[in-house]
Amino acid sequence: MKRFQQHTIDFLFPIALFFVFSATALIVLLFAANVYQGIVTDSANQFEQSTSLSYITTKIRQNDTEGTSRIYLDTFNGYDALAIEQTYGESAFVTYIYEADGELKEIFLKEGVTASAQSGTTIMKTNDLIMNEIAEGLFKFSCTSDDGTQDSVIVSLHSEIN
User: Fold this and answer.
1) How many CB atoms lie within 10 A of CB 45?
2) Is the pLDDT of residue 1 over 60?
3) Of 62, 110, 114, 158, which residue has the fewest beta carbons closer than 10 angstroms?
């Protein structure tokens, strides 16, 4: 009967191979976690931008009815604002949508009533919301994410322009 002689390399090679595999798996895992974190951050920024612009667009579409409302850009307590005038019965009301202190806010007031910008309801966090009226009844809204990416939307009124 022949006995095989045990060499040190027979013991060290599988252990070294295991450590190389473990180190490689750890490096790949750390790289994947870093990529995932970047994707989550980009997704959150994109969500904030697109959701705030979508919210404004939806509010315009909901209230863009001929004869019952008027939509225009105005200022509210020194902030640029989208104003939506509506009449209920004999009373006129105005909804202001604006950005104050990095937040998209909305406030619904009876015409002639004053309120502070901080008393508006916070809709969501937003950055650098810019509102422009390109032409009569044609609005452009832009906002910038935390990473500097800018997104914008152009909205046209479908009802008769007042």
Assistant:
1) 18
2) no
3) 114
β-sheet bridge partners, residue 100: 103
pTM of the model: 0.72
CA distance 15 to 96: 69
Q: Alpha-carbon distance 62 to 73, whole Å? A: 16
Positive or negative torsion for Cα 5, 10, 12, 15: negative
Provide the 8-state DSSP code for 25: H
**Which strands sit side by side in the sheet containing 121-125, from one edge to the other?**
69-76, 79-88, 91-100, 103-110, 121-125
Question: Residue 82: beta bridge partners?
Answer: 73, 97
